[in-house]
Amino acid sequence: MKLLVCGGAGFIGSNFVRQRVEEHGDEVTVLDKLTYAGRRENLEGVPHAFVHGAIEDPAAVAEAIEGAEAVVNFAAETHVDRSIAEPDAFVKTHALGTFVLLEGARERGLRYLQVSTDEVYGSIEEGSFTEESPLEPSSPYSATKTGADLLVQSYTRTFGMETVICRGSNNYGPFQYPEKLIPLMILNAFSGDPLPVYGDGQQVRNWLYVRDFCSGIGHVLAHGEAGEVYNVGGPDECTNLEVVERIVELTGADPSLITYVEDRPGHDRRYSLGSEKVRALGWEAQVRFEQGLEETVAWYRENPGWWEPIRSGDYREYYERQYGSSLG
Ligand code: NAD
Ligand code: TYD
Fold first, then answer.
1. E strands of the chain, at which residues?
2. Who has the most CB within 10 Å: 1, 107, 205, 259?
3. Do 165 and 74 fall within a single domain?
C-alpha cells in the first residue's frame, strides 16, 4: 500500500512508519513540519520519501499526497502543558491543518485516518469511556483535537468521504520526546535530577505501548468502517506516582529525588478507555505495562546519542520555563 503519513517524524508516527515498512512492505511518504518534536533521526534506517512542510500548507500537501492510496494523520502539537502556555500552534495545526489535509484527501477520493486521543472525552472517575461517551475536553490540546475529530466526521456525513478516527490512550516507548511523563522521569533519574510529580501524583493514566497503538491503527486503517471512531486503550492503568516509583526502581535512582510540584491547571484525574470495538476487528494489545516500561528504560539507556542533543538544546529552555531552574 502507498501511504501518506503526516507527522511521521514524531514519536508515534515514526514507530508507525517503521512498522508499516518493515512488517507490511508499505511504501510511505512522510509529510512533517519538523517542529521541536519532529526529528529526521527518528526514521534513520527506514526507507521512505520525505516532504518537509506543514499540513496547513496546501502546496506541501499537494506535493506529498501524489500517488498515495490513503492518508494517516499524526501531525499535531501534543503536549498539554505547552497548550496551556502557548495554545496558538494547537489551534492552527489541529483546526486549519486537519481541514487542508482533509480537502487534499477528498479531492483525490482517498481513505483518511485521523489519529486522536482519549483526552477528547475528558476525565472519568469510574469505569471506561466508550466511543459513545460525550466529548468533554479540558485543555486547549484536547479541545482542538476534539474540533479536528468533529471536522473529520463531518467530511463523511457531508461529502461521503471514507474517514476513520482512532483514539489512543497514553503511549510510551522508544523515541518519545522527554517533555512527556515517562521519558522525562527516566532521563532525570539517569542524571540524578529531581522527579517533578504534579499535585498529589494520584492521577491515573491508561498506558499503551507505542507499537500496540501502531498495530491498532493498522487494524482500523484496513478494516474500520467509514465514519466510525475506534478507541485503542492500553492493558494497564496506574497512578503517576506508581509509574515514577517503578522508574526509580528500574534506574536505581534515589527515591528522595521525587519532588511534588504545583499541579497542572485543569488536570484530568483519570483516563480509561474501553477497546471492545477495535478488538472486534482482531486487535489485541501485546505488551503489558511492566514489560513495556522495562524495555523503554533499556532503550533510553542504550540510546544516549538520541536524547543527549535534545536535552542540551531548546528543551533546556522549555524545561526551565516549565519547572524553574531550581529543579536542575
Ligand atoms: P509528537 O509531538 O512526538 O509528534 C508530532 C509530529 O507532528 C512531529 O513530528 C511534528 O513535527 C509534526 N507536526 C506538528 N505540527 C505539524 C504540522 N502543522 N504539519 C506537519 N507536521 C506537524 O507526537 P506523538 O506523541 O507522536 O503524537 C502523534 C499523534 O498521536 C497526535 O495526533 C496525538 O494527538 C496522538 N496521540 C498521542 C498520544 C500520546 O500519548 N503521545 C496518545 C494518543 C494520541
Ligand atoms: P503527560 O505525559 O504530559 O501526558 P498527558 O497529560 O497527555 O496525560 O502527563 C502524564 C501524566 O503525568 C499527567 O497526569 C501529568 C503528569 N506529569 C507529572 O506529574 N509531572 C510531569 O513532569 C509531567 C510531564 C507530567
1. 2-6, 27-32, 49-52, 70-73, 111-117, 163-168, 171-172, 195-198, 204-209, 229-232, 236-239, 258-261
2. 205
3. yes
- Whether residue 273 is contained in a domain is answered as no
Sign (positive/negative) of CA torsion 319, 323, 324, 328? negative
How is residue 273 written as a grid cell?
478507555
If you take atom 4 of ligand 2, which residue's CA is the nearest one? 180
Q: Which domain holds residue 299?
A: 172-205+235-264+287-318
Task: Specify the residue with its C-alpha closest to ligand 1, atom 28.
Answer: 74
Amino acid letter for position 291: Q
69 part of the active site: no
pLDDT digits (tens, 9 = 90+) for 10-20: 999 999 999 99
Indicate whether 300 belongs to any domain: yes
Q: Please tell me which residue in 32, 119, 212, 268 is annotated as part of the active site.
A: 119
* 191 and 222 housed in the same domain: no
Is residue 276 domain-resident? no
Give yes or no: 268 in active site.
Answer: no
Q: Kindly report the CATH number assigned to the domain that includes residue 220.
A: 3.40.50.720
CB-ligand 1 contact for 97 (6 Å cutoff) = yes
Is 136 considered catalytic here?
Answer: no
For 210-240, the pLDDT digits (tens) are: 999 999 999 999 999 999 999 999 999 999 9
- Residue having the nearest C-alpha atom to atom 29 of ligand 1: 74
For the stretch 271-324, pLDDT in tens is 999 999 999 999 999 999 999 999 999 999 999 999 999 999 889 999 999 998
**271 domain residue, yes or no:** no
**What is the mean pLDDT of the segment spanning 178-192?**
98
